[in-house]
């Protein structure tokens, strides 16, 4: 996981953290809703996560929609 920005910075993301991510060529801002650590349904799709490889459900500040991202795609504000 050498390319995992969260691991490099040592920051752990949690519910309520403000983050940014790239979406369709621009930067989007939002908030972490939850950490996903098992295979589940979220944001309209099946998320294949585990405790070793978690993913995060985030809510866009602009649209209010949720999305799921790997930690390497998110930057803490």
From TrEMBL:
InterPro entries named among the record's database cross-references: Hva1_TUDOR
A Pfam family recorded for this sequence: Hva1_TUDOR
Biased composition range(s): Basic and acidic residues: 10-21, 31-42
Region called Disordered, residue ranges: 1-77
Provenance organism: Streptomyces pyxinicus
Chain ranges of the Hypervirulence associated protein TUDOR domain: 16-74
Name this polypeptide is given: DUF2945 domain-containing protein
